[in-house]
Amino acid sequence: MTQFNVPTRNEVTANNQTIFDQLEKGLGFVPNLYAYFAKNDTALGDYLALQNRKSTLRAKEREIINLVVSQANGCRYCQSAHTVLGGMNGFSEDQILEIRKGTAAFDTKLDALAKFTLLVTENKGQVSKEAKSEFFAAGYSEVNMIDVVMVIGDKIISNYIHNLAEFAIDFPIAKEL
User: Fold this and answer.
1) What angle do CA 166, 37, 169 make, to 5 degrees?
2) H-helix or E-strand containing 77?
3) Distance in angstroms (rounded) separating the CA atoms of residues 55 and 74
4) pLDDT digits (tens, 9 = 90+) for 41-57
5) What's the pLDDT tens digit per position in 96-155?
6) How much of the chain, in percent, has pLDDT values that exceed 90?
7) pLDDT-derived band at 171, boundaries 50, 70, 90
8) What is the pLDDT of residue 1?
């Protein structure tokens, strides 16, 4: 079996070293997920550009998508990272666990987002007209739907990378559901 290692700063390109320095300055460390992307000359910068793109969704809504998709894809790394980020965005521990299950009964609009995200993820975008109607009835638009899919795509990328490489989780481990 192949052992997948997370590269150190000295093992990546000069461009990725600059990104490592920026991450270290902004976050206080370089998460293993980001460091692993840096094995590829352009993947880290590309991924961060996708992750940091302008969106019609608030940070709290993006965290709902991240938590739902990470749970659906069984990515312990992203479940753990986004449990921390979800808390930083004002969700309680109980709310985070509920969101990971694909619901948010504590807020009707966020509940519609969580349910829609789970359906889109599990059905690879092929959801019923009723599911789309419920999403739109909650106050979301077609523009928001595009952003939901963009965030789902972002999270699928990171989920699959960790699920394939299985590098160490450098966040407090999220509770199992």
Assistant:
1) 35
2) helix 76-88
3) 25
4) 999 999 999 999 999 99
5) 999 999 999 999 999 999 999 999 999 999 999 999 999 999 999 999 999 999 999 999
6) 98
7) very high
8) 60
SS3 track for the chain: CCCCCCCCHHHCCHHHHHHHHHHHHHHCCCCHHHHHHCCCCCHHHHHHHHHCCCCCCCHHHHHHHHHHHHHHCCCHHHHHHHHHHHHHCCCCHHHHHHHHCCCCCCCHHHHHHHHHHHHHHHCCCCCCHHHHHHHHHCCCCHHHHHHHHHHHHHHHHHHHHHHHHCCCCCCCCCCCC
Tokens encoding 138: 């909650």
- Domains annotated on the chain, with CATH: 9-51 (no CATH), 59-165 (1.20.1290.10)
Residue 74 identity (one-letter amino acid): G
Instruction: Specify the amino acid at residue 51.
Output: Q
Question: For 25, what's the count of Cα atoms within 13 Å in the CB-facing half-sphere?
Answer: 6
Residue 128 identity (one-letter amino acid): S
**Confidence at residue 62, expressed as pLDDT on a 0 to 100 scale:** 98
Q: Kindly state the average pLDDT of the residues 48-71.
A: 98
Write b or e for each residue in 5-32: b if 16 or more Cβ atoms lie within 10 A of its Cβ, otherwise e.
ebbeeeebeeebeebbeebeeeeeebbb
